[in-house]
Design brief:
With 512 residues, the chain is α/β, with parallel strands linked by helices. It contains 18 helices and 16 strands. The structure holds 3-methyl-2-oxobutanoic acid and zinc ion.
């Protein structure tokens, strides 16, 4: 059985895609779940890119013990120094340093000759190794690089001390046969490649990221990189849960071991979707809502006779078990606490009390409180980030006057003043958004707005996700409520507050 290391980059390559922005608390929750999922390495962020990233990487490095925590750095001393400050507390400090090696990137982006690129890469790896016992070098756009030049780069960075070399298909251009052949070539020809790990990192522009990653494994890669649910720039990265399940189900063929705890798959996927606001397509392999649904009569008949007729993956394997009994307004604190624990949430007494209070309020209005509702409620408690001055929504009201919606919002401003604002719009949502724009006194552009129901039934909770730009910064907010208009107002304020918290963090970092 060959061991394949799983390198998760949900919090770096995944998080850097348009419209996703996670705060430190949310990143920490995802990191703890990735640790439970059993990833070998998690890339917690890009410490030199912003104070927010630095803080998140540092907190994750302090918290996570059973997975290696890494951070991304450009091939420059200042990035490596900042990353060391963030990561030196980790159990096994690991750095991921990168530089582009394709002709187009070297000429137009870096404006460097191939010789200069080799020199910078070697210097960066040598410098990083002064601090970090584990250093991964990535040759950005490796797949479109000249093969002989790439082979030289790989050999030189290994000589300089790289412990892993990553060969990304940065623009998702490769086919499985070509990408596999590149790994075979490097393993056989790059000096020292047999002594380090080669890693595959695939983007999904042509829908081949998972197939390419597996082709690399078949041709000598000992590590694969990707994200949960395949989130990432453009068409995303390789889906780690798909790779892990494929290697497991076809173990007879691949004969590999990833060390992934597959029973945590569904929960990991659910948490990432919930916190990033990126919905999972219903027919997505492994984690899509319909992945185990059998609609046609012939399939249903076969399933009843023997599930193996049409089912190669069981829901149990990925932890998608049958939903337990819903909780209702008569459920007690004990049952509630038990459910939080069986769902994998470790809440403090204070968080549990607050969640129980919200649960009772919800159960008064809703016949049954389902696992989906509870998931939102519990994660909501875990990700509270209250330490910056923000807006607090007190009430939202919409009434029609002469067929025109008028919104009135009462809120507390970041300086603690209670204020009432009103405005109109062509529809109720527009009236609310116009009123909130007045409240926050800045230019707000709405880029995307979505409302979905959580779970089933006419009394289901509504979740609003809004992507907007405020103070020239693009940010996503989300929140839930039983009323979709209220959920929309809360999601808008959530986005504004996230921008304020980020700005506050930047201010504090500058003052230090
Ligand atoms: O896609 C890519 O090339 C990357 C590198 C930074 C590894 O994400
Ligand atoms: Zn990438």
């Amino acid at each position: 059985m060959r061991k394949i290391d799983i390198f998760d980059t949900t919090l770096r390559d995944g998080e850097q895609s348009a419209g996703i922005n996670l705060n430190t608390q949310e990143k920490l929750e995802i990191a703890k779940q990735l640790e439970k999922f059993g990833v070998t390495i998690m890339e917690a962020g890009f410490p030199a890119s912003s104070p927010g990233d630095f803080e998140a990487v540092n907190k994750i490095a302090k918290t996570v013990k059973n997975s290696i925590v890494t951070g991304l750095a450009r091939s420059m001393q200042s990035d490596i120094d900042t990353s060391w400050e963030a990561l030196k507390v980790a159990e096994q400090p690991h750095l991921h340093v990168f530089l582009a090696t394709s002709p187009i990137h070297m000429e137009y982006k870096l404006k460097k000759s191939p010789e200069e690129v080799i020199e910078i890469a070697v210097e960066a790896v040598k410098y990083a190794r002064k601090f970090f016992p584990l250093v991964q070098f990535s040759a950005e756009d490796a797949f479109r690089s000249d093969r002989e030049f790439l082979t030289r780069v790989v050999g030189e960075v290994i000589k300089a001390g790289a412990t892993t070399v990553n060969i990304p298909d940065t623009v998702g251009y490769a086919t499985p046969a070509e990408y596999g052949a590149l790994f075979k070539h490097l393993k056989e020809n790059a000096p020292g490649a047999d002594k380090v790990k080669l890693s595959a990192h695939c983007h999904n522009d042509l829908g081949m990221a998972v197939a390419n990653s597996i082709a690399a494994i078949e041709n000598g890669a000992e590590q694969v990189e990707g994200t949960i649910n395949g989130i990432g720039e453009r068409a995303g990265n390789a889906s780690l849960e798909e790779i892990a399940v494929a290697l497991h189900i076809r173990n007879d063929y691949y004969k590999t071991d990833t060390g992934i705890n597959l029973r945590e798959t569904k929960r990991t996927s659910h948490l990432v979707s919930q916190l990033t606001g990126v919905v999972i397509q219903p027919n997505k392999a492994v984690v899509g809502r319909n992945a185990f649904a059998h609609e046609s009569g012939i399939h249903q008949d076969g399933m009843l006779k023997n599930p193996e007729t049409y089912e190669i993956i069981t829901p149990e394997l990925i932890g998608a078990k049958v939903e337990p009994l819903a909780l209702g307004k008569h459920s007690g604190r004990h049952a509630f606490k038990d459910r939080a624990e069986t769902m994998g949430f470790q809440l403090t007494d204070e968080q549990l009390n607050a969640a129980f209070k919200s649960f009772k309020a919800l159960a008064d209005r809703k016949k049954e409180v389902t696992e989906d509702d509870l998931f939102v409620l519990f994660t909501g408690q875990q990700i509270k980030d209250t330490d910056a001055p923000v807006y607090k929504l007190i009430s939202t009201q919409v009434e029609y006057r002469n067929n025109e919606p008028n919104a009135t919002i009462v809120a507390e401003t970041p300086d603690g003043e209670e204020t009432t604002v009103t405005s109109t719009g062509n529809g109720s949502v527009e009236a609310i958004f116009n009123t909130l724009e007045k409240l926050v006194q800045g230019q707000v552009h709405i880029m995307d707005y979505r409302v979905t129901s959580i779970g089933k039934g006419r009394d289901a909770l509504g979740e609003a996700v809004i992507n907007l730009s405020y103070n020239d910064e693009r940010i996503t907010g989300r929140d839930v409520a039983q009323d979709v208009l209220q959920a929309s107002a809360k999601a808008y304020i959530n986005a504004i507050n996230r921008q304020l918290m980020k700005a506050e963090l930047r201010k504090r970092a500058e003052q230090q």
